[in-house]
Amino acid sequence: MTDPTAGEPRPEEGDLPPSPSSPLPPFPPPPSPRKRWWHRWKLILALVLLTPVVLVALYTATALSWSYSEGQRAGYLQKFSKKGWLCKTWEGELALSTVPGVAPTMWNFTVRKESTARQINLALGRRVLMYYQEHRGVPTSCFGDTSYFVDSIRIVQ
Questions:
Q1: Are residues 45 and 90 both part of a single domain?
Q2: H or E element: which one contains 151?
Q3: Where are the alpha helices (DSSP H) in the chain?
Q4: Is 17 inside any structural domain?
Q5: pTM for the complete prediction?
C-alpha cells in the first residue's frame, strides 16, 4: 500500500493550525470548569437567612388579615392607654357587667387605628358597644398585647 500523502510535507510541531478554508473542523472549545457549591456561598447564605424572615412575614400577614372570630361587647370603658417599649399600641379594658351588684369581668382589647383610638378616648367612663375581631396566632406583641382588635365603637345611653 502506498501512502496518498507521501509526497506532501508533514506539518511539524509548532506549525500553525490549518486555515478555516481547510476541510478539517475547528478545534472545540475547552470544557468550562464545573462550579462547586462553595463558589456560590453568598447566594446560599442569603437564602438560608432570608427564607425564615419571609416565612414569618407571610405568616404574620395571614394572621392579621384573617379573623378567627368577630363580634360585639358592651360594658363600661375603664382604661385606655398607649403602651409598649418599642412598639406602641393602644390597649384598653372594658368592664363587662351582667347584673348590678356583681363584680364585673374585665375584657382587654387592642386598637390599631388612630381614628378609633380618638373615639375611645372621648368615651372613657361611659357605657359603650365595641365591635371587634379576634386574630389568633399573631407571633409578636408588637401588633397588640391581646388577640382582640377593636374596629369601631358606639356609645350606649
A1: no
A2: strand 148-155
A3: 41-65, 114-122
A4: no
A5: 0.66
